[in-house]
Amino acid sequence: MTSDMTARMLRLLSLLQTRREWAGADLAERLDVTVRTVRRDIDRLRELGYPVASARGHAGGYRLTSGSDLPPLLLDDEEAIAIAVALRTTAGGLARIEESALRALAKLEQVLPQRLRVQVAALQTSLAGITWEERGPRVDPALLAGLAVACRDHEIVTFGYTTRHGTAGARRAEPCHLVDSGGLWYLLAHELDKEDWRLFRLDRISDVTPTGRRVAPRPVPGDDPTAFVAARLSAAPTRYRAVATVHASADHVRTHSRGLATRLQPIDARSCRVDASDDHLPRIAQTLAGLDTDYTLDADPDVLAHLRTAAHRALRATGT
User: Fold this and answer.
1) Closest CA to 84 of 118, 50, 52
2) How far are the Cα atoms of 80, 81, 111, 152, 168 from residue 71, in angstroms, in the given order?
3) What residues does the HTH deoR-type domain cover (predicted)?
4) Which CATH architecture has domain 237-317?
5) DSSP for 156-190?
6) 95-144: pLDDT as tens digits
7) Cβ-count burial of 42 within 10 angstroms (0-12 exposed, 13-18 middle, 19+ buried)?
8) What integer pLDDT is reported at residue 211 of this predicted model?
């Protein structure tokens, strides 16, 4: 194949991996070629071992499916299994994994043959590890991966949800983004019954079911999902209030303190505000401990008492 054709086919493969199904005309427009050229390139991908399914008719299109063999992703079976298990274990063990890694996991599991999926599941259930510290509620990696796919495909899902007050109920929503904030994962979605944007904590979600209905992407108010989530979290009621005024820029704190992107509010070029408010005192202490520069703190008396007790305990342990 010529270099131009190779580049075009790699671009085609990348497009097929980013959406559950593509219309031939849409692929042709993206690649700036004819629909007939798209059909020929699809046939070439099939000859290379990529399982591309197609449906005829007005609503038909192309989609990358799982096949009997792992497509040539420059990974052998053992490497594919190792990557899938590593991504799943990281997500479930730490509940902190970048959304780009979730997309990689979703892409990989989309094309894993059944025989490899069985091995991945078996390894996942047999692995054990030591947890040295508690970083908040655990999140099921399969839930993370499933919701990442739903966000990518703009597919409506139904799920059970338990509120902070313990009330359980069924929800139906359009997933938009997954956001990690201070060790907690949130799903930003448009809830259809309420006709409003909502935040759902992933550790309170259960029984996610795709409906098969895909919709056009819905723009987030302000066109900035992170800022929108930050505003919602800062406005949400918490048991304990703790707000730190940090003597460093928001960019500095964002770079050096992971997981605080949705809790930051710039003040000026040399200072910012970090909202560490939470329902759990140890998590507030953990958030503040992650700051690598001086700050002043405006917090509830219970928060201050907890921090003083922890500080005195640390000083006694060091003999100070």
Assistant:
1) 118
2) 11, 14, 7, 21, 42
3) 5-63
4) 2-Layer Sandwich (3.30)
5) EEEEEEE-TTS-EEEEEEEEEEEEEETTEEEEEEE
6) 445 556 666 777 777 778 887 777 766 655 545 444 444 445 566 767 87
7) buried
8) 92
CA distances for 284 relative to 28, 55, 264, angstroms: 51, 53, 14
Amino acid at position 301, single letter: P
The fold for domain 141-220 equals SH3 type barrels. (2.30.30)
- The C-alpha angle with vertex 161 and arms to 155 and 162, in degrees rounded to 5, equals 165
- The amino acid at residue 48 is L
Domain spanning 3-64, CATH architecture: Orthogonal Bundle (1.10)
User: CA dist 179 to 51, 106, 117, 260, 308, Å?
Assistant: 32, 16, 27, 11, 31
Tokens encoding 69: 């063999």
Q: What is the pLDDT of residues 55-65, one digit of tens each?
A: 776 556 888 88
**Euclidean distance between CA atoms 247 and 237, whole angstroms:** 26
